[in-house]
Amino acid sequence: MKKRRVFCVLSMLALFSLNYSSLLNYDLETDSNIEKRLQLISKNKNIEKLIKEEIFNLTNSQYYSIEYLTYARDFNGNIFAVAKFFPKGFVILNLSIGEFMEISTNSDFPYEIDQVKSKYYVPLYGFYNEDGSSSLTNTSNAISSSDNKDSTSLANLKKISNQLSINYPKFRNKTNLEKIQGKIQINDYYYDDMPQETPSMTVFSGVDAPKAEIEIPYSWFFRLNKTQFPENIDGNCGYVVMSMLLWYADMFESAGYLSAYDYENFITVGNGEYGKCVPTLSEDFIDHYRPNSGSLVPVDAGDLIDEFMVGKEIDYDCKTTIWVFTKGIDDILAEGIPVGYFGNLPVEPNNNKGFHAITVYGSYGNGKILAHYGWDGYNQVIISKASMFELGGYVYIENYETHHHRKYISNGKHSYCGCGLLMEC
């Protein structure tokens, strides 16, 4: 990128120093002030550099380039930089605190630039027009749908935006803010445009999210599981999480969490190489046991898992917490156990009272978690705790049973147990 003339740089620095402070407060701004701030921010090239640095650090790949970079607001005057990547992925950066709110290196981002630019953003809900209607037109996805007007009413969206905005200052990233302000130099390497060449099909599908500092040993089960789980609809997110936890326990801890009937009727063995494919859990699994599934809290989920395990000769313990915000999750993950997290997450239009359930299988040292969100393609999502309310709880299964094998992967020549043991075809 060519350097600007010295006069322009000095002029912009003066303008930036006078106006950037307004970006860092949390008072409700008028639309006219926000528009001026958006115009000013759009001229700051450090934002693009910071985003490129972040995606390169995550992927260690130069195949990613920015398809578009634009700016959105929320209902409380905070401004967000939104970048969609080629070939896949996106990031959303909260410019008020310098924190990346949402990052994905392998998920499709359904929004066109006009559906994001100057729209109203509610973390993990999506982007909205001023009247609270979805900015997506003639499009539906797992996060936003025009069919869910009641649960995403304008009043509810503003309430969520306000609650999150109050929480934001605790997650202020001083280093990133100083990079945006030009106080810390960002290596020019990241400033160069990344190649636009078409990568291989493997890269097209998106590279893996970086390995978390704490990550369960068979995390590939969640990383690869894009579509092979029951559909997350009608507020049954907690049941999807329970299904994944039981399925994981049966595959990697010990066969027996799922009965022979379950295995024969609801499991389709993965077709491919071990560690590179996952089996499929049928859509009918949840309907068979809970045809009227609905919203859950962690204690309910624990009770239902215990009920499901009645009569099974498995030595285990299902543990739950009541509304402790992610406290202790790192310790559980370090023991190799995935965690079902239930919380007041602003994520799913079909939710009940704002609750959603996700499966956490990794934790980074910077206050972010690695999770499966229970939607197609949202199998590797890195999320900041700044995108979450402070109330939440979790459920997990602690196994004490000696491992019993069961075939879960087969490629026609070899078959494998989840633990990796080669079995007879």
Question: Mind explaining what this structure looks like?
Answer:
- With 425 residues, the protein is of the alpha+beta class.
- The protein has two domains: 15-191, no CATH class; 209-423, Cathepsin B, Chain A.
- 27% of the residues lie in helices and 20% in strands.
- The chain has twelve helices and 19 strands.
- The protein has helices spanning 6-19, 31-41, 45-59, 154-167, 174-180, 201-204, 220-223, 237-253, 260-266, 284-289, 298-308, 329-334; strands at residues 65-73, 79-86, 90-94, 99-104, 120-122, 126-128, 214-215, 267-268, 270-271, 280-281, 316-320, 339-343, 356-363, 368-372, 381-384, 392-399, 407-410, 415-417, 422-423.
- The strands form four sheets. Strands 1, 2, 3, 4, 7, 11, 12, 13, 14, 15 and 16 form an eleven-stranded antiparallel sheet that branches. The protein has a four-stranded mixed sheet with strand order 9-17-18-19, with no helix packed on it. Strands 5-6 form a two-stranded antiparallel ribbon.
- Strand 5 (120-122) and strand 6 form a beta hairpin.
- The chain is globular.
Q: Beta fraction of the residues?
A: 15-25%
CATH architecture of the largest domain: Alpha-Beta Complex
Q: What number of structural domains do the residues give?
A: 2
> Helix segment count?
12
Shape: globular
User: What number is the mean pLDDT?
Assistant: 77
